[in-house]
Write the C-alpha cells for this entry.
Amino acid sequence: MAKPDSTPPRADTFVRRNLPAAVTIAALLLAWQVIAWTWLAGTHLLPGPVEIVRGIIADWRLYPGNIGATMSVAARGFLFGNAIAVLLAFVCILVPRAEGPILQIAVVAYAVPILAITPILVVLFQGDRARVIVAALAVFFTTLIGTHAGLKQADRASLEMVRAYGGGRYAQLAKVRIWAALPYLFAALRIAAPTAVLGAIIAEFLGADRGLGIALVVSEQNLNSVRTLGIGAVAATIAGLAYWLVGLIGRLCTPWAPASDGMA
C-alpha cells in the first residue's frame, strides 16, 4: 500500500509562510491608527490609515492619469535598464577582458546619487526620456550583478561537457549558463521592479507634467498630509505588486529553483 503523501497543501503552506508578516503589518497599522486618534488627535501631523484610505477614495480622480504616467516611465526604464544589464553580463562572460571595466563602470554609475544626475539629464533630454533613463539607471546595477553572478554559478561539469563536444563560449552560454542564471536573474528583477517605480517618481520631482511624483510635490507644498500619505501609500502598493508579479513570473519560469519566501 502506497504511503500517503504528508506534504502540506500549497495553500496551507502559503498561509503559514505569510501569516506572521500579515499579522505584523496589521498590528503596526492598528498601532498607527490608535496613535493618530489619541496622542496626535487634532494635530493633523500624522493621519491614520483610516483617514488615508478615505482620502484616497475622495481623491480617486487624481490617481488614474498620474499612475499611468509614472508606470509608463517605470516600465520603459525597467525594460531598457534590465536589457542593457543582461546584455553586458553576457559580454562579461563572452569577453573576459571586458569584465573588469564593465563592472567598474557599473559600480561608479551606481555610486553616483540619482538626484545629482537627474537635473543634468532633464537639461540634455526632452520629454520623458530623462525620467526613463533615471528609472533605467535605478535598476541597472542590481540586474547586472545578479545576472553576472548567476552566469558564473553554472555547473563546471556541464560546461566541460559542452567543451568536450566542441562547443565554445557561445554554446556554453546558450546551453548551460543562461539556464543556471535564470533564478538569479529573476531574483534581481524582483528587486528592480519596485526600484524602477521609485526611480520614476524621484525623476518626476524635478520636472514632469503629471505623475505620482509631481502630485506628491504639489500635495506637500499645499501641506495636505492626508493626500501626501495617500499618494505614498498608492506608490508603495504599486511597487509591492510589481515585486510580487515579477516573483510569480520567476517562479513559473524557473520551477526547478528553490522557492523563496513570499514569491508565490
Summary: Residues 1-8 have pLDDT under 50 and may be disordered. Residues 118 and 203 are 6 Å apart (CA to CA). The chain has one domain: 48-253. The chain has ten helices and no strands.
